[in-house]
Amino acid sequence: MNLTLDETDRSEILRYLGYRGTGLTERIEEDLRRGVEIANGILRPAAVWKIYSLDYAEEGIKLNTTGCVLKGESIKKHLKEADRCALLCVTLGRDFDEEVERLMVKEPGLGVILNACGIQAVEKLADSLQREIDERVAPLKTGVRFSPGYGDLPLETQGDFIRLLNTEKTVGVRLNENYLMNPLKSVTAVCGLYEDGAVPLK
């Protein structure tokens, strides 16, 4: 997938850095410019997704035939009225993590900015993937993303997502013993599928 940060991403990057449009010095402006430039040179975007039907049971929402059960009240509310879902994973690749780690030692200020660029980039990649899914499953449309660890959906659910999407082979994403992803700038999520025009609001 193609992915590039540009001027339209500036406000979100600054938001991740804690800025609200004030207090920007020339040095920060220059580091922001450099951060975006560096990011665009090391982005290695990759994505994978699959569609599953849903079965609502007492113990949670089952992704049929997979052995995966989505537990918790948050996900029940989030997927209300959906009978199918899209499971997805996106990543920026290991190069991005390595450059952030390097800069955190060599130029910490720039490293923090590059990290914020990565947060925006991986979210932008996930948005782009959802648009691609929408085109493939029309007239259905994906709802808002929901990831393991949000609300009361256990972080351990990450293991099922990684297994079902076979991310180690498809996009190079692995889990550690704490259910955290490597590369760090990766996102897994589930989205309900709805008739176009009936997608629940955020």
| Helix segment tally | 7
The main sheet orders its strands as 3-2-1-4-8-5
Assembly level: single chain
Number of domains: 1
CATH architecture: 3-Layer(aba) Sandwich
> What is the 3D form?
elongated
How confident overall, as mean pLDDT? Answer: 94
**Percentage of residues in helical conformation:** 40-55%
Number of strand elements: 8
* Percent of residues in beta strands: 15-25%
The assigned structural class equals alpha+beta
Order of helices and strands: HHEEEHEHHEHHEEE
CATH class, named Alpha Beta
CATH topology: NADH Oxidase
Measured between the Cα atoms of the first and last residue, the distance is 26 Å
Largest pleated sheet: 6 strands, antiparallel
Which consecutive residue ranges, at least 5 long each, have pLDDT under 50?
none
Radius of gyration: 18 Å
Describe this structure in words.
This protein has one domain (7-195): 3-Layer(aba) Sandwich (NADH Oxidase), CATH 3.40.109. Helix content is 43%, strand content 22%. It has seven helices and eight strands, in the order ααβββαβααβααβββ. It has helices spanning 10-17, 26-42, 73-78, 94-106, 108-137, 157-165, 167-170, and strands spanning 46-57, 60-63, 68-70, 84-91, 140-142, 174-175, 181-182, 186-195. The strands form two sheets. The protein has a six-stranded antiparallel sheet. Strands 6-7 form a two-stranded antiparallel ribbon. The longest helix is centred in the middle third of the chain and has 30 residues, at 108-137. The two termini are 26 Å apart. 33% of the residues are buried.
